[in-house]
Amino acid sequence: MTVFRLAALRTAEDFADWYRIGADYVAHIADGMEFDCGPFREDAVAGVEAMRAGHTDVEPRVARSIAATLLADAAFCEPFCEWLPLWYELALAGPNALAEYRLTRVARMYASDLPHVSVPQYSTPKEVLVEGRPALSHVSGFSDRFVLTDAILHLEWFVHVARESGVDLPPELLARTREETVAYYTGRRESLSPDVHRFQSLLFADDEWVRKINRTYGLDSTLFGVWEGILRRARTDLETAASGSAD
């Protein structure tokens, strides 16, 4: 199987586990950072159950969380690939466009009765500067570019989805995480402050998101395996650094 197996996903039922895996990721980070989640966990359970039953008439909070998660995923791939080599961006252009279309279509089923649902505006390489130059100019190699990209964009994904799902986030920490992350992954900072370090360690659990999507949808995808490996190494590097500093 390959990522093209995802082309068969069309309905709310098909994307129920997709939403569940995303909601679990948000909850994992929020719990680890001790953010106030309000009724998010209960809403997520209700959302998964509704999607599995093909129901779209859910409470507004639930509908917003589902729509925000799917729309954030739909908008994620294209800007992510802009940070990577052109050959990679071109190779995934077709699958990315199809995924965006399918995710957006289902998200709209849940957003139709809401007054407003926003889509995250992910950072582009030209927008993230370090010492007046694009951040990418300070890194080399595919894995380093991938990790830098993910460190920035998974923060933006989480902030958007968590807020839309009712999780209370501290603005000062978010701003500091963004600043320190860019500096750290471009070699302009030797370490992250403890709370930012913990935050990014939790965010890099997106290796588990990749693994669960790969397994749940029976993809057996080599590409997903590559992504998972890169992200797992980034997470374990942070965890090892934290363990070393504690010693």
What does this structure look like?
It comes from Haloprofundus marisrubri. This is DUF8116 domain-containing protein. Residues 1-241 form the DUF8116 domain. The chain is mostly helical and 247 residues long. It has one domain (7-116, 129-241). Helices cover 65% and strands 2% of the residues. It has helices at 16-33, 40-52, 60-74, 77-82, 86-91, 93-111, 142-164, 171-185, 194-203, 206-216, 222-246, and strands at 129-130, 133-134. Strands 1-2 form a two-stranded antiparallel sheet. Helix 1 (16-33) packs antiparallel against helix 2, helix 1 (16-33) packs antiparallel against helix 9 (194-203) and helix 3 (60-74) runs antiparallel to helix 7. The longest helix is centred in the C-terminal third of the chain and has 25 residues, at 222-246. The N and C termini lie far apart (44 Å). The model has no long low-confidence stretch (mean pLDDT 95).
Spatial strand order of the main sheet: 1-2
The helicity comes to 55-70%
Radius of gyration: 18 Å
Tell the overall outline. globular
Query: What is the straight-line distance between the termini?
Result: 44 Å
- Mean pLDDT across the residues is 95
Tell me the domain tally. Answer: 1
What letter string, H or E per element, gives the SSE order? Answer: HHHHHHEEHHHHH
Give the low-pLDDT segments: none
Question: Based on DSSP secondary structure assignment, what is the total number of beta strands?
Answer: 2
Helix/strand-derived category reads: mainly alpha
Main pleated sheet: 2 strands, antiparallel
Secondary structure tally, helices: 11
Strand content: under 5%
